[in-house]
TrEMBL record:
It comes from Rhizobium leguminosarum bv. trifolii (strain WSM2304). Residues 6-199 form the NAD-dependent epimerase/dehydratase domain. This is NAD-dependent epimerase/dehydratase. Keywords: Plasmid. The keyword Translocase does not apply. InterPro entries: Epimerase_deHydtase, Lipid_A_modif_metabolic_enz, NAD(P)-bd_dom_sf.
Amino acid sequence: MAPRLIITGSTGYIGARLVAMAHERGFEVVELGRRSGAKWRIGDEPAASDLEGAVGIVHLAHSWATEPQAAEEDNINIPGTVTLADAARAAGVPRFVFSSSTSSRREALNVYGRTKFRIEQHLAASSAAPIVRVARIGLVYGGPRTAMYGLMAKLAALSPILPMIGLSREVQPIHLDEVAEGLLALATQENQPPQTFVLAQEKPISFAAWLRMLRRSQGKGNLHFIPVPLAAALLACHMTKLVPLIPTVDPERVLGLAGAAPMESGESLRLLKLTLADPMVTLAGEFGQTGEDRSLSEAQALLQYLGIAPTEMQLQRLCEGLRREGLSPLGLSATVIRHPRLLALFEPPASRTQHRLARALYLADLASEPERHADQRAGFFGAALTIASDVLLFPLRALLAGTYR
């Protein structure tokens, strides 16, 4: 008989993937919700027959009906979650997984973060506490381009210049499949104690770096920012509801970003035996090109820029070197890959040895060296032409110095 798993919020971005993964693993899935067979909404007392015999419950559902200014006792998510957890324990369900967020803080700027924090507190004080496991989830990406991920991907691809808040804030991306894997482990593994787990990349990155990653993975080149004050961003959110043909941005999401701060996730990932993939490699694959294909095309462009007709051995050496140094994929735009000479516009000064493109070109030079013949050195006129072009291109290179850094 297939083990039984109960999921709320099964039609959402995370929920739909979790349901699919649970079916793939052989679970019988009961979807609690308004549009499912087991009719239920947050605040309702679930039918005991829907809960009995389950190995676990994953609670993803969240009601947005409560007004942001409403008092805590009026927010249905808080008593509704506790009601569901208490009913689960009474029905003998051994594990209740509450889907929280890395924005869950007492002092969070957004209502969503403060609400999640309060629910965690109420669960800890409830009779269901012995079966509760809290999953604080980071910035989820991948899969269908909906929810926050879809919005960020659209914004990053919209223009090479983007007004944005919170550029220095640190975020912790995690792929949709990795979130589903973690939630499934929390709901089914018997050896995990009731506690708070963080599902997010162990090493945070700046929000600016994340947006650049999203743009480069779509073959759009680099992204430049115009810092925007929070008050202006919130006003712009309201304006997006009035202007057609542009993505609508919820102020709650802006406030969540403005108050973002990383959480330690290493121990949680170790306990759940989760190894998270490199977001850049994963994104490159999801946007139509595998990480291996992108690395190969970038390596070829680097060698061609240096005037080398690359051999298979040189490409192999360079791809390996770029991977080893954490430079692959580099994020070269599709135009630059097709026309490698354009790299002359972005090559940084020789003094900037830590620049990503400078390091990649140095590796390309090393990768080609074993097959290079001694008589292939440039003559006087070739050297003079190189110096002249460097002088002429200097202003452009200074202007574009931030690209591929």
